Every structure is written in structure tokens, then in C-alpha cells.
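pinging the channel bc i need a second pair of eyes. not urgent but kinda urgent?? the chain im working w is below, pasted from the shared doc
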Amino acid sequence: MTELTPESANDFSSVRQKAFIEEWLNFFTGKPNDLLSFEEVKHNLRLQDAAYKGLQEIELDKIAGSVGRYRDFTRTFLPKSDNMSERWRRVDSVALDMGGLPPIDVYKVGDVYFVRDGNHRVSVARLHNAKTIEAYVTEYKTNVPVTKDDDLDDILLKMERTKFFTKTNLNKIRPGNNIEFTAPGRYRRVRGHIAFHKHMLELAENREIPYAEAVASWYDNVYMPVIELIRRNNVLKDFPGRTEADLYAWLITHRARLEKEYNAAGLVPDEDLLETIKRERATNPFARFMGFFRESLNLRDMPLKIERARFLEQTRLDEIRPEHGIRFTEPGCYQLAKQHIDVHQHLQQLEQGQEISYDDAVASWYDNVYTPVINLIRERGILKHFPKNTEADLYIWLVNRRQALEEEHQAMGQIPTEKVIWDLENELLSKPNLGLSQFFGNKLDLESVVQQNAVTA
């Protein structure tokens, strides 16, 4: 058996420290930090046709997934648990003694490799700054362009887009159509719109309509008039990270919902819907702030009541702290709060050196993280400056503002919440009508953060 060396202990300590920092930073930037699951990718892409390609030298940077251990390592193959120490150190000792590592076994999908056998070897090789590693490669054929930076939603979106254009032939019928969605599910919805439009045309003209003709008619007479309306009203500027096609999908969906709710089929014009959404974005500065932040975290559009119900179901906060009173005014905040709890649990486990139940982590987060911030907000009377927001809204803003300052000054954990509140109070005294998102924007350019971290909204 390979002897564990002091050098391997130092190496493992180094990768664990890097893993902690990486997970912490990725939590706030929204950059994908989990390895792709080969089983999920294979299932969703319906991969079947595989061919053995033999022993090859492959780029470590293109290994972004694992067959069975995708939860054990970060996206850069840093070990997530101290329990992996012994095995990781043995592999590291072999690398140090022999000056290299045995070949690994991988599957290739698109431009990405998934480790079938050799996860620890990849982790060790990356620590020692290797650029490539020998691997036995089996390649699965796919027409979906999978890359190393994709998460599962990105892959699903690419799959849907490929299928949409294959089925509709829209790229040939209307070249330069520029239909791009940023979330899975919308291409399928549009295919439903086209099918409905074809049915209505057939009823109106009392004849069978060829599918290609229906696609062209839908694009010219349904889709493009909405897009031209969006352009005339310059609505897209209020939705950074979204596309014209996203707004088309939103308008169609909400119009159908309103017409059903008020039994007003055909009576809700797109112009009224656009005015509603423009007015909401213009009068709610916190919504503008969360618009940036939600895009950077790649959060999905979700009715607020549903998101709150899911948050309470996942955290059991109503049972653990019945008096909590946590309410947010913007979609996405409940998911951010859930991530705060997850990080708190991880930090508590590292500090105490033992597993902590999720219920205990929720209680600890509420008592020792959330409530102290809320008490400060109440003591300083901050909420009166933001009548359209809640204490919970301000908690989200303050925690993420503090994190931004700590990253800016390289002072992780050293900037107290009181300092952030003091900055906010001073700004409010000098500019009493300043909105929350405007203050945030003066201190941190969220759009540049998104670009720097190459996050797909």
C-alpha cells in the first residue's frame, strides 16, 4: 500500500482550502460549481450511439463531469469533503513518487469529458498544473453542442433549440430570425403556438395548411408584430440578460392567463401588457436590483407564492421558527435565502468538524445570521426609506453588499454588517430619494460581475 507522505497532506490541505473559497465565491456569483452528471446528460440527450476511441491525451480543462461522483468534487475537481483525504493523498503520493498517473477512463459528449474512472487522478493532476492527462475515451454522438462551461440547463436549452429548428425548419424559412431563449421550456411552448396558429388558419381558410406555410405565417403575423412592439417601446433595456424572444413568451403567456382569468378572450392587447411591465420596472427600484442579480444567478421565472411555498417546504421554517415573518417582494429572493442557509450549514460543519442536520442549520441561520441583521435594520429605522420593500428584502441586499465589499478589499469575513448599514445611512442622508438599486449600482457594477464570470442568464 502506498505510504502517505507529509507532502500529500499539505497538498490535500491546499485543495480543500481552494474548494472552500471556490464554493463561497461561486455561491455569490452564480457560476456553476457542480460537475455535470453523466447519467442526467445521457438521459436528457437520449444518448445511445457510442464508439470506443482508444487511448488519447485529453485536455484536463475539458473534463467537466463524472459518471458517479459528480457530487464529490467542484467543477474544477477540488474535493468537497475532508472524508476524501486518505484516498486523495494516496493518489497524490503515487503522482509524486512515479512522476505521473495511470490513464483514466472517460466518456466524451460534444466537447466535454465525463470521468468514468479516475476522479481523484484528475483532481491531483489539476493541483500539479498538468494541462493534459491520458484517457481511454468512449465517445457518444450528439448534435447538441455541449461545452465545458455548460450546466444542465444550458444543455437542455441547446437541445430544445436544436430540436425546435429541426422540427420547424425556421432557419431556412426565415433566415436571420434571431429567436433565442434564455431558459428551457420556451422553445417547446413556441412550437405549441405554431401548432395552434396552424389550426386557426385551417379553420379560417377551410383547408389543410402545410406546416412550412403555418410556420412562416406565425413568424410574420404573430411573432414579429410583438417583437416590433417591444422594440418601439424599448422594453428590453429594463431586462438585462433577457432577449426579445423571452419577452414574447412572457407577453403571450400572461395575456392568455389574463384572458382566462377575466373571461376576456382577445380583449387584452399587447400594448397594455407592455405598459404594465414597464411601469412595474420603473417604480420598483428593488426590482431593478434583483433583475440584475436574478440574471447573474440564472434564476427561473417563478410566481412569488409558489417560490415562497417551496422555500418553506424545503426549510420547514414555519415549524422551526413559527414567528419568522420572512416575506420577499421579488422572485428569486427565496432561492437566495435558501442558498444562504446551505452555505451556513457548510461553514458550521467545517467549524465544528461534524455533520449538522438541516433543521439545526436552518435554526442557526435564522438565530445567528438573519435575525441580527433584521435587528440592526429595525434599530436604525432603515425600512422607512424603502416603503415598497420588506425587512427580508433589505437582508438580502445587505448580505450581498457586504460580500461585494469583502471581495473588493480582499477582507473575507472582516467587514461587519454595521459598516454596510452606516454606508447606506450616509448615502440616504445625502440623497434621501435614492432607490435601493441605485445605491447598489453606485457601489458595484453587477453587469460587469456577470460578464467577468461568464454566467449564462
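so Strands lie at 36-37, 50-59, 63-66, 104-109, 112-117, 132-140. and DSSP finds 19 helices and six strands in the chain. — does that match what u expected or am i reading it wrong
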